[in-house]
């Protein structure tokens, strides 16, 4: 099997799998229980929380970190609080990219009212547009790596620029696709909140997280209430086994050296794939640059990507025709439109996404099979 | 170890543990992915969804079932929709018990506005009070088994009475503590929604569920948005491995015969404990009747329950002094007050909760140790 859909979901890191199965068998108590079993689990959860703060150089005086059940929940929490008005201020504009993850765009559409949201076109990059946008800005939603295109935004630089202009402007970063893959530092404490996801970086489904600047906590409005868990910022039973498993993955993947080594390795895979594919199927386009090496969007003209996905899967090769969360959307893909891909090409897009567990042999095997299938299918068009 | 805190969280059923660890290793894809790995997971998720509908005799024409990440999320979803006004109607009163789980009471307090919620005192039972409450009623929140007291409400009977009076009144049932333990049938389709929890019945933390009457779906407002998962009723990546694990537990525990057999067995444990404890420590009180045998609240006068918990844990015996979600609340316990326990006794309450995996030998061992510790501590008071 060749699996190039790691941006949709990636296998558990072996250490995370081992930790999870051990923990599921033994760490069954409720970390909020007052007895020793509960207290001991709670202590270990706090240790993992500390690890997550350390991983992005966030000082405990600046940031809290809360575990959520999904990146969608983390993003929704911030949108509903900041945009949905529970923060108490509804004046000022919200800027975000229409190509952002739907847990940002759809929640802003739903809770943002009709007037205060402004969606910026352009492949997930607010960088260049930002100078024109600062005036009247109340909050900005950034995505460090766009889940559809792979485009990287320099969120630290953008946050600095915004905070220089006005420190009150709220800056949220969705780092679900980039955590443990692209460096992120919260040392300067200019970003107000950051969403991360376990299932995109070797952790299990069912757990994710939210960094939250402590200065903002006094006005924070939890999405889930009823129980004092997560420092009273998020209710519901603490999922200790999943947290421990994710902690094991981040211990293995989150260090600067490991991150850089994996980045270089995946860059080599990505470069190899593009070079080989350009040679064998020159008509294939790579519409984006400044991308994370972990995600490669390609356009294969004339052949529908759904058909390609089906033919590839017959050979046990798995790729995506869009992000999983919009895989059932028919017709125009709004994310692709926002990213500047012409409507006529939407049904020719494939998203390949990698992990350090992929190999050069898999890349070569993929290109061979892709070229084979593509040329066969071309004959029928 | 003797673990009598199963209402806080209970070990995974052996079949659930086996299924979960297998699934974590192999079912890593995203069930929303369009390729075969995704489609195959999605199909299996739909099969488990069907199992959950069957387990409570809910017809697919009447009910949908959605997987959430926690019972707190499921309860919050209904409160925020029905009480928080996103349903569009804010007239009429909301009735609930002040002794309900905080994911109900706190969320109503937060989103219910100041005028339309009415909290009913009395141990989690609305049954007897209901006749006086029907007039002007818009929605009622019931708890089938109160998590603190164990008191059972006949939710099917109450729902019938309410729907007889006016079919529009919304009826929600929190069955987090009772699913697979106390019979519940949705065959008559009088209950509008039901919350259930995996981690209270042999499934893992990180997954729970919500039955939702299809007639109500047209006005439904999801708590989490951004992705068409769960029939477009709840966004975020579908946690397939956790769902499969919970499905394995419910296959084993959810049948009528298994449920009845476990009920009889746990009733015997509960009866034995009360008889033995009354004989050895006659001063201990059992303040509630009409209770689930799975939960036994006791009051041990003169000795603080926190001290008892600590001494018991020294002997590897684990019980709760309150529900885990309010274990860090100091002073008056609002839930206990609502249940009619005098303030002076709040710090003498212990909650014991059982599972079919407990044994008569553990009951006898517990009573022996409890009597021993209690009499020792009495000498210091």
Written description of the protein model:
The structure is a homodimer of 381-residue chains. The first copy, chain A, has 381 residues and is of the alpha/beta class. Chain A contains twelve helices and eleven strands. Chain A has a seven-stranded mixed sheet, with helices on both faces. The radius of gyration of chain A is 21 Å and the shape is globular. In chain A, 57% of the residues are buried. Chains A and B meet through helix 1, helix 2, helix 3, helix 4 and helix 8 of A and helix 1, helix 2, helix 3, helix 4 and helix 7 of B.
Brief write-up:
The structure is a homodimer of 381-residue chains. The first copy, chain A, is an alpha/beta fold.
Query: Total number of β-strand segments of chain A?
Result: 11
| First and last CA, distance of chain A | 28 Å
Helix content estimate of chain A: 25-40%
Rg of chain A is: 21 Å
Shape of chain A: globular
Order of helices and strands of chain A: EHHEHEHEHEHEEEHHHEHEHEH
Work out the oligomeric state of the chains in this entry: homodimer
CATH architecture of the largest domain in chain A: 3-Layer(aba) Sandwich
Write down the CATH topology of the largest domain in chain A: Aspartate Aminotransferase, domain 2
Topology summary:
The structure is a homodimer of 381-residue chains.
Chain A: E1 2-3, H1 14-26, H2 36-55, E2 63-68, H3 71-83, E3 93-97, H4 102-111, E4 117-120, H5 130-133, E5 137-143, H6 155-165, E6 170-174, E7 193-197, E8 208-213, H7 229-232, H8 240-253, H9 256-280, E9 295-299, H10 305-314, E10 317-318, H11 334-338, E11 349-353, H12 360-378
Parallel strand pairs in A: 1-10, 3-4, 3-5, 5-6, 6-7
Antiparallel strand pairs in A: 2-8, 7-8, 9-11
Helix pairs in contact in A: 1-8, 2-8, 3-4, 9-12
């Amino acid at each position: 099997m060749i699996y190039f859909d790691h941006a949709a979901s990636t296998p558990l890191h072996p250490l995370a799998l081992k930790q999870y199965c051990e923990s599921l068998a033994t760490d069954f108590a409720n970390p909020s229980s007052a007895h020793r079993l509960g207290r001991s689990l709670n202590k270990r959860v706090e240790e993992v929380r500390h690890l997550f703060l350390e991983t992005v150089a966030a000082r405990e005086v600046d940031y809290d970190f809360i575990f959520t059940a999904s990146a969608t929940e983390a993003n929704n929490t911030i949108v509903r609080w900041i945009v949905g008005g529970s923060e108490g201020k509804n004046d000022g504009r919200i800027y975000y990219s229409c190509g952002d993850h739907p847990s940002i765009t759809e929640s802003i559409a739903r809770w943002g009212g009709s007037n205060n949201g402004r969606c910026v076109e352009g492949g997930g990059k607010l960088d260049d547009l930002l100078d024109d946008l600062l005036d009247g800005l109340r909050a900005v939603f950034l995505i460090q790596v766009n889940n559809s295109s792979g485009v990287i935004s320099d969120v630290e630089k953008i946050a600095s620029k915004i905070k220089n202009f006005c420190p009150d402007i709220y800056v949220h970063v969705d780092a679900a696709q980039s955590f443990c893959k692209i460096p992120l530092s919260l040392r300067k404490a200019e970003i107000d909140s950051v969403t991360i996801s376990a299932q995109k970086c070797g952790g299990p489904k069912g757990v994710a997280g939210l960094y939250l600047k402590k200065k903002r906590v006094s006005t924070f409005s939890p999405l889930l209430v009823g129980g004092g868990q997560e420092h009273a910022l998020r209710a519901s039973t603490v999922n200790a086994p999943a947290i421990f498993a994710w902690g094991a993955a981040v211990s293995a993947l989150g260090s600067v050296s490991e991150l850089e080594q994996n980045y270089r390795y995946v860059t080599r895979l990505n470069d190899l794939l593009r070079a080989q594919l350009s040679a064998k199927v020159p008509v294939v386009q790579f519409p984006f640059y400044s991308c994370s090496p972990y995600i490669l969007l390609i356009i294969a003209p004339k052949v529908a990507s759904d058909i390609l996905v089906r033919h590839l899967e017959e050979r046990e090769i798995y790729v995506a025709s869009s992000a999983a969360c919009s895989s059932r959307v028919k017709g125009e893909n709004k994310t692709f439109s926002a990213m500047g891909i012409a409507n006529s090409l939407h049904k020719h897009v494939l998203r390949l996404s990698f992990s350090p567990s992929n190999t050069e042999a898999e890349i070569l095997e993929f290109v061979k099979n892709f070229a084979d299938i593509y040329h066969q299918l071309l004959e029928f068009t």
